[in-house]
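Narrative of activities, Objective 1.

The group set out to show that a structural description can be obtained from nothing but a protein's sequence at a throughput compatible with the screening campaign. Below is one input-output pair from the validation batch, recorded exactly as produced.
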Amino acid sequence: MNVTFLTALAALVPAGLPCAGSVVLFWRGKTVSSFLQLLGAGCLVVVVLTHACEALHLFPWMQWGREQSVGHYLDFWSAVLGLTLFPVGYLLQALTKRDA
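Output recorded for this entry:
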């Protein structure tokens, strides 16, 4: 087994739990904050899946691991969006629940 693939599999649990929680939260009440959390958590899962695809050498046309490639930008922007949208959604949810 490839170490990168095992690391991606291990990271799937911490990335999948917020995603599952965000799905439940969005299912209960379709608010902007729950949508932002769901979108951010989904982006974090995409980051993990890109590392798994890189380790398994899937989609070689994406040139995983090389700068200026589609795979690099998919991984980078998914991480940026995930680490931005999920906390913003969580903060909005906390602020709206506090006022209610």
